[in-house]
Fold this sequence. Notes:
mainly alpha
Amino acid sequence: MRPFFSVLFLLFAVRAGAQTRAEAIADSLYATGDYIHAINAYSKVGNRASGLQIARAYKAVGNYDKAIKQYEALAAGNIDLQVVRFELGRLYSKTKRTHQARELFLSLSQNNADNPEYHYHLGAAYQDLGRTRESISSYKKAVALDRTHLRSLFRLGKYYVAQREKDSALSFVDQGLEFYADDVSLINLKALAYYNNDQYGKALPFFERLVELGEQKQYIYEKLAFCYFKSWEFEKAKTTYKVVLVMDPDNAEAHFNLGQVFWKEEQLDSVRFHVKRSIELQDPILSREYDALARLARQENDLKSAFEYYKLAYAEDTSNYLIYFNMCTVADQYLTDPQRKLDYYGSFIEKFGRKKPYCSEFSQRRITELREEIHFVQE
């Protein structure tokens, strides 16, 4: 009997050696990116590990349908293969099979509640389905398990920044920055949390840091320039807005804001140039630009131009009570006929009523005074 067992052992050893060599060849092909030949090589091995590699190879070449079928076959054969189900769930998410991804990651997170990755991907699936409350809950579970889970911290920070809940946003963003201080996505969220809360001085160093880290994006320079402007650093604001205009010469917003910087420095010709350039570049509502030109003309005591610009501004935005009120007060200074002045103030009361106490009270007082003036002239 001993010779028989010896031969049997030898056959197993030869087969195992051949299988090991076949796996080595397949692994080498996979490692060097020769995925199609790797698939053929793995198919000759025929074990569970090679089946997983076939699925990964199909995914690598972008044949997601075949990859999913391979993963599903492996998962059906053994539900305890977490790595197969995890990779399948991610592929479901990638191919927008969101309901299937949610079901798979919900099962994984229930059976392995201490794995933050499962909660993160479940949160992402909920987010793709528009189920915000559940997605935020899942991200928070991931962070509770791993306080350095940057992707969950980013998703939470982004959500609270969008909700304008600065303190909540910063609590998650700062937690991530403690782990990785130069994470540009988190630095960007911190800058935006302050910026959206009108805390431009606090936002400024974080926008500066983004530029230092190589984030040469237009919107970053736009917000950095505005932070400089609000912090009274006008030279830096001008320099930064000029960078924006190099990136986008037809940026109407940058021209307008650069005009505001020059206004602070009493460079009125430059103000006029950039505000008018902003107008030239825009087709939609221009009330803000016409209002700026009206204020500029008023500052220069050019009441005729101010009056005309206010009329243009109001024509662009008939809901803006302040523009119309300013038009009334300039008309009061510019026009000589008290009846026309009275008509403008009366029109203000008719259009906007008494919703704006200061403007309404001032208008009503001038109406009384003008009526007395008209009556006196007639007498």
